[in-house]
Every structure is written in structure tokens, then in C-alpha cells.
Design goal:
This protein has 425 residues and is an all-alpha fold. It has 2 domains: 185 residues, MFS general substrate transporter like domains (Growth Hormone, Chain: A, Up-down Bundle); 148 residues, Up-down Bundle (Growth Hormone, Chain: A). The chain has 18 helices and no strands. Helix 1 crosses helix 7 and helix 15 packs parallel to helix 17. Belongs to the major facilitator superfamily. Sugar transporter (TC 2.A.1.1) family.
Length: 425
């Protein structure tokens, strides 16, 4: 079974697989393009000489500069943490669509603040903008998969949710290459570093415009008692009349699920949290959280944000060389993600992919670490030639990427969507 395989739970009219559901999923997936781009471009932008000159990085000591960069990066993660927490509340009270609009607007506001930074105003606007952008990204990262899954016919749900992961990698690919582009085609200037910041607004703007057109989730509307509106939207999405037997069965299934939820969990904002009193739910919650803990413990976020520093540490010199190597890292991630979606996730299973990814990735990192211990790179060297050891370390870095991506990059998200029952989810 692959990405293009249809596994129907019942006979499905061909009208159900229409352009509307695909377009809605694609528009919502601009959220993941925004997330992917933001996770990729910022680290290389910090390394642009024009950015360093604009904010006078040369006046900082090495330790102070490292702390400053770490703070600018980490406030984004802090914003994303609180944004993801708030997503449950907005989804419950105002729905999926308006939640996406709210979080996207906050992201755009944050991106606009970053564009207002300069040498006179300092980095304060960048830091504040990163907090707001992170908050928006955190909310969107929760809302988008939920929205797509609730809008999709069962047979293509996995395919359409796969758009989310693919959008993430496409955005990341652009983010990893954009600074290589501006560094090779433009001289050092304020415009050089503002272009990568400005490109954030492209997928976010498309998402906001798309949210003005896409409908609300029918499942949420049914849960709020807005049945007539839910029926109209579901009929439009499935391209079927409201009295069609397929549509009648789907609406009955949604309402039965909601009734089961109310009976087993209860109605109200706080009721779902009562599920944590169940020992089995707590164990699954622990397993799911552990997967994300180990995913982040792999170092992927450090690589995304500090990739120029990573490549310099294994011997690469020159801004363009490190940016080019970072771009290739993005290409490897994107290509392997496509292979994962098309061939691996449903053929090899979740557990085997995680095991192969962990073992292969660990061996690659052990080699790189051993090389740096045995033959440390001279940070003050101006030579652009690479030793055979540095070439091998770069190769193992890309090999680590090829092992990490089909396992710990996407599989934890898939497992967490599968290990909980509908009520707990």
C-alpha cells in the first residue's frame, strides 16, 4: 500500500474524489510550507555577513554572540510551545478555520515586525517578531493536520495529510537554499538579509488568503449543533446532493462518533482531560511524548538552525560553501521524504523504520564525533581545501540525514495519530 493506493471502507462514488477536497488540503498545507521555511532559513540568515554587519556582531565576544544567537532562536520555540497549547482552546470555541486565520495573522504580524528591524532599532523587533511568529506556527502546526483529516474522505485521508509533511519539506528546501541564492547574486546590503525574512510572508499570505475561501470542518459544526451548515459544506466537499446515500451514511457516522464521545467522555472544554485518569491512556501518552522527546533529542533542530556552524565544525570554509552544503542537506531531506511517503511508511511499518533510523543515524553520528575527537578542525584556518577526513564526515552527515528522515522525522507524528482512540485523540 502506498500514497496513491485507495483503500475504501465502503463503496465510494467517484464524485467524492474531486478537486475541492484536494484544493482545500493544498491551501491548508501552506501552513506547513511556512513552518518548514521558518525552521530552515533563519540559521543561515544569522550567518550572512550583511546581517552580522547590520547588527554589529563583531562587537560581541564569542560567548556573548553565541548566547545572543541561542536566545533569538529559542524564543521562537517558546512561542511555538504556547501557541500549540492555545490551539485546543481556539479549536474548541471558534473552530478550525478561524483558528487557522488567527494563528496565521499572528505569524504575519511577527514577520512584519522582523522586517522593521535595523541597526538603529537593534534586534528587539527580531526577537519580538520571532515570539509572535513562533506562537502562530505552534497553533498552525496543531490545527492543519486536524483540519485536513476532518475534511478528507477516509480512502484519501492519509494521502491528503501527507501533503502536510510534503509541504513542510518543500518549505524547508526553499529556506535552506534562499541564503545561498542571495549570497551569490547580491552584494552585502540590508536587502540581502531582508529578502529571506520577507519570503516568510509568501506562504503565510497564501494561507491567509486560502482561509478566506476554505470551509469550516463539518465535524466541528456538527459538534456545535450547526447541523444544517455542516450538511451543506459536506455536500459541497463531496460533490453530492445532501440526500445521497453515501452522504447520509457519512453524516450518521460523524454524529454517532460525537454521541459516543459525549457518552464516554462528556461535553465541555475540560472533559477530555479526564481521560488522563485511565492508566492505559497515560501509558500511551507517555509513549507518544517519548517519541517526540527522542525526535528532538536527535539534534535535528540544532542542525536546522545552526547548519552553517555544523559544516564549519567539520572543515568547510567560506560562507557560500557552507550555504551550498546546507542547501544539499535540504535536498536530501526532501527527496527522502518523498520516498518515505510513496514507498516506505506503509510497506515497512512504523517500528522497523524507527529502529533502522536510530541505529543507522547513531553510527553516522558516532563516526563524525570520533573524527572530530581524533582530528579536531582548526577553527582559525583559512584554507578552503578539505581533508579526506572532513569529506568523509560530510558524507556521513548526509547519510545521517537519509537515515533520520524516513524514521524519526515523520513516523512519530503517524504513530501518535494511531495509538489513541477517537475520544482521546
Amino acid at each position: 500500500m502506498g500514497l496513491f493506493t485507495l483503500t475504501e471502507d465502503r463503496p465510494t462514488p467517484k464524485e467524492v474524489y474531486n478537486w475541492r477536497v484536494y484544493l482545500c488540503a493544498a491551501l491548508a498545507s501552506f501552513a506547513s510550507c511556512t513552518i518548514g521555511y521558518d525552521s530552515a532559513f533563519f540559521g543561515t540568515t544569522l550567518a550572512l555577513p550583511s546581517f552580522e554587519e547590520e547588527f554589529n556582531f563583531a562587537s560581541y565576544s564569542a560567548g556573548s554572540l553565541a548566547t545572543l544567537k541561542a536566545n533569538v532562536v529559542s524564543v521562537y520555540q517558546a512561542g511555538a510551545f504556547f501557541g500549540s497549547l492555545s490551539a485546543y482552546g481556539t479549536a474548541y470555541f471558534v473552530g478550525r478555520r478561524y483558528s487557522l486565520i488567527l494563528f496565521t495573522a499572528l505569524f504575519i504580524l511577527g514577520a512584519g515586525m522582523m522586517l522593521g528591524a535595523n541597526s538603529d532599532r537593534g534586534l528587539g523587533l527580531v526577537v519580538g517578531g520571532r515570539v509572535l511568529a513562533g506562537f502562530g506556527i505552534g497553533g498552525c502546526s496543531n490545527m492543519t493536520p486536524i483540519y485536513i483529516s476532518e475534511l478528507s474522505p477516509p480512502a484519501v485521508r492519509g494521502r491528503l495529510v501527507g501533503f502536510y509533511e510534503l509541504g513542510w519539506q518543500v518549505g524547508g528546501l526553499v529556506g535552506f537554499w534562499i541564503n545561498y541564492g542571495v549570497s551569490t547574486t547580491m552584494g552585502p546590503s540590508r536587502s540581502q538579509w531582508m529578502i529571506p525574512f520577507g519570503v516568510q510572508l509568501v506562504p503565510a499570505g497564501l494561507l491567509l488568503a486560502g482561509c478566506a475561501w476554505i470551509p469550516e470542518s463539518p465535524r466541528w459544526l456538527f459538534s456545535r449543533g450547526r447541523d444544517d451548515e455542516a450538511r451543506r459544506i459536506l455536500a459541497w466537499m463531496r460533490n453530492l446532493p445532501e440526500d445521497h446515500v453515501y452522504l447520509v451514511e457519512e453524516m450518521a457516522s460523524i454524529q454517532a462518533d460525537l454521541e459516543h464521545f459525549r457518552r464516554e467522555v462528556g461535553a465541555g472544554f475540560w472533559k477530555p482531560f479526564a481521560g488522563l485518569g485511565d492508566r492505559k491512556v497515560r501509558w500511551r501518552f507517555f509513549l507518544g511524548a517519548s517519541l517526540f522527546f527522542f525526535q528532538n533529542g536527535s539534534g535535528i533542530n540544532a542542525v536546522n538552525y545552526y547548519s552553517p556552524t555544523v559544516f564549519r565544525s567539520i572543515g568547510l570554509r567560506g560562507t557560500n560553501s557552507t550555504f551550498l552544503s546546507t542547501g544539499i542537506f535540504g535536498v536530501v531531506k526532501t527527496v527522502v521524504t518523498v520516498v518515505w511517503l510513496l514507498f516506505l511508511i506503509d510497506r515497512m511499518g512504523r517500528r522497523l523504520l524507527l529502529l533502522i533510523s536510530a541505529v543507522g543515524g547513531s553510527l553516522c553520528m558516532w563516526f563524525i564525533g570520533a573524527y572530530l575527537c581524533i582530528s579536531p578542525v582548526d577553527e582559525n584556518s583559512t584554507s578552503t581545501s578539505l581533508s579526506s577526513g572532513s569529506i568523509a564526515a560530510i558524507f556521513f552527515f548526509y547519510l545521517w540525514t537519509a537515515f533520520y528522515t524516513p524514521g524519526w522525522n515523520g513516523v512519530p507524528w503517524v504513530i501518535n495519530s494511531e495509538i489513541f482512540d477517537q475520544n482521546t485523540r
